[in-house]
Write a structure and sequence with these properties.
With 423 residues, this protein is an alpha/beta fold. The chain is built from 19 helices and 5 strands. The protein has a 5-stranded parallel β-sheet.
């Protein structure tokens, strides 16, 4: 560049930074576009343009509320609102793709630009390109290992992954069926599922056609997630736990892509269990129209389920407290055809649960667990655990408020107070 042109370039770059510092991202993008046009080979101008494009896209990112407005307008026949909403979604995606182009052009010119890889990772995450984003983040961290921000980006992507490579248990977490308080029939059914996963050849010799999945149904707090984890632990399976929020995405086609990715990962790590909590929210009854987005997710899930065989050694476990909301096709033969009821504990089971939950606590002689079991009809295992914890909190305050030394133990009055607070 000639000296006058160089001065103009520097002025434009300075102006772009001023706009960026004022969070005027659209104006910053325009300034950096002019800088790139003036000097197409400037890696700094290209980086600043990619960086500003990402920030503009992030600041203008449509929220879930915006998406709901589009769906509602579609249902009401408000075509103009629908077109405006879709145009905004498409515009945001175009900004992100433009940012990817310029950041990649920086990497082509400077392969060791850690900052370009970092912002490329953030942009790819926004486009829901998880694998590519993770690769870019790892490259940034490798190029600049001392940068904590780059290293934390890698951890963030890892923690946001759909899969959990192996079942992890804390020292006090239940790991066997004996650690669970369930009726004998339910335990027997779950043990059958474990053996079919653990010994598929034996099941085949006996003429048993292993199911591809089961549905755990019962009220909240009855231990459905814990049951799935123990099943994976006992059958020595990889464990992939997801919720509807992990799958459902704003952009068209991304949710189905995540379903496909989930099953691909499970098939690549056999034997494996895919656990879907609140499965009724992910696979509701198909209705068409306004729910066409969720219908496509259901269709993709059914397609993946139909592709499972007993040789693939992939098992799907769904959990719900609203089985009536689940699409009927999910519950038919060959899919989640086996259903296991996880009921609320009866009085004897509640007594056992109180014994387990107070195992590490010091109880006063006046604490009567049988009375507590009788008073907590309708409580789930999670409710009882919360009750014991609340009693402990009340005891903590009571003991701290007493000036003289007193026994560090839970009294029956602590449990009575907890019942009143949680009642």
């Amino acid at each position: 560049m000639t000296e006058p042109t160089s001065n103009i370039f520097d002025d434009i770059m300075h102006r772009g930074m001023q706009r960026a510092r004022a969070y005027q991202w659209s104006a910053a993008v325009e300034a950096y576009r002019r800088a790139v046009a003036l000097d197409p080979e400037s890696t700094e101008a290209r980086f600043r343009l990619g960086w500003a494009l990402w920030n503009q896209a992030d600041s203008e990112r449509p929220t879930l509320t915006d998406l709901a407005v589009v769906y509602g307008a579609q249902m009401l026949g408000l075509d103009q609102t629908v077109r405006d909403g879709r145009r905004r979604l498409q515009g945001n995606r175009l900004l992100l793709k433009d940012a990817v182009f310029y950041l990649n052009s920086v990497i082509d010119r400077e392969p060791k630009s850690a900052r370009a890889y970092f912002y490329l990772s953030k942009t790819l995450q926004a486009l829901d390109m998880r694998t590519e984003a993770e690769e870019a983040a790892r490259t940034a961290a490798k190029l600049d290992p001392e940068n904590e921000v780059y290293n934390s980006m890698v951890k963030t992507i890892d923690h946001g992954s759909l899969s959990i490579p192996a079942v992890e248990h804390s020292a006090n977490a239940p790991q066997t069926w004996d650690d669970l308080v369930l009726n004998p029939r339910t335990k027997r059914e779950l043990r059958q599922m474990q053996l079919m996963l653990e010994k598929p050849d034996l099941a085949g010799d006996l003429g048993v056609q292993p199911p591809t999945g089961i549905l755990l149904k019962g009220p909240p707090g009855t231990g459905k997630t814990t049951i799935a984890r123990i099943l994976a632990h006992q059958a020595k399976c990889s464990f992939f736990a997801i919720t509807p929020a992990d799958i459902q995405q704003m952009y068209v086609g991304e949710s189905e892509k995540r379903v496909k990715e989930l099953f691909e990962r499970a098939r690549a790590n056999p034997p494996s269990i895919i656990f879907i909590d609140e499965i009724d929210a992910l696979l509701p009854i198909r209705q068409g129209g306004i729910a066409i987005h969720s219908d496509k997710v259901v269709n993709q899930f059914l397609q993946e389920m139909d592709g499972l065989t007993h040789n693939s050694r992939v098992f799907v476990v769904g959990a719900t407290n609203r089985p009536d909301m689940l699409d009927p096709a999910v519950r038919r033969g060959g899919r989640l055809s086996r259903e296991v009821e996880i009921p609320l504990p009866d009085e004897d089971a509640r007594l056992q649960l109180f014994g387990i939950c107070t195992r590490s606590a010091t109880l006063d002689d006046d604490v009567n667990l049988e009375t507590l079991a009788r008073l907590t009809e309708g409580y789930s295992g999670a409710d009882i655990k919360a009750l014991v914890n609340e009693a402990g909190m009340l005891a903590l305050i009571r003991i701290a408020d007493v000036q003289e030394a007193c026994a560090r133990s839970l009294l029956m009055q602590d449990f009575e107070g907890a019942l009143e607070n949680l009642g």
